[in-house]
Specification:
Blueprint: E1 2-7, H1 14-19, E2 24-29, E3 44-49, E4 54-66, H2 71-85, H3 89-97, E5 101-117, E6 130-133
Parallel strand pairs: 1-3
Antiparallel strand pairs: 1-6, 2-5, 3-4, 4-5
Length: about 140
């Protein structure tokens, strides 16, 4: 399966993924939405900043999913993985506290794409921040 992770441009995370500084992509949700139960070891994740072309790719080496994110569980997740997620714990604590589900996607072999490409999000919702597709070529623009 192929995935497209749409990143918040102002957080400047794609260079950290490419350099290996950020080895875990995390997604925090109020509800179980993609990629919950739809991403597995060996899948490919393409990365793009919002409004920009897809510019990087990595392979999934492991996936962890957490539900019922309460204060103690949140603290344990952040204590163990915050550095690899590349978020500053205190700065985002309020953001994390409002979520019920967490997906940690461990990345390997990150690469900058030599030929970045645009995608067509038709049918995925314009505000969708994660897309799951069988074939990446079907959404290339």
């Amino acid at each position: 399966m192929n995935h497209i992770a749409i990143m918040k441009k102002s957080w400047d995370l794609i260079p950290k993924i490419i350099s290996g500084e950020k080895t875990i992509e995390s997604r925090w949700y109020k509800n179980r939405i993609a990629p919950w139960d739809r991403i597995s070891k060996g899948d490919t994740v393409y990365f793009k900043d919002s409004g920009e072309p897809v510019s990087a790719v990595a392979t999934v080496s492991k996936v962890l999913q957490f539900s019922d994110i309460y204060e103690d569980r949140l603290s344990k997740i952040l204590a163990k993985y915050a550095d690899d997620i590349s978020f500053k714990t205190q700065e985002y604590k309020e953001y994390y506290q409002s979520k019920n589900y967490c997906i940690l996607i461990f990345l390997r072999n990150p690469q900058k794409l030599e030929n970045p490409f645009h995608i067509d999000k038709t049918g995925y919702g314009m505000s969708s921040a994660w897309m799951c597709v069988d074939d990446i070529d079907t959404i290339k623009n």
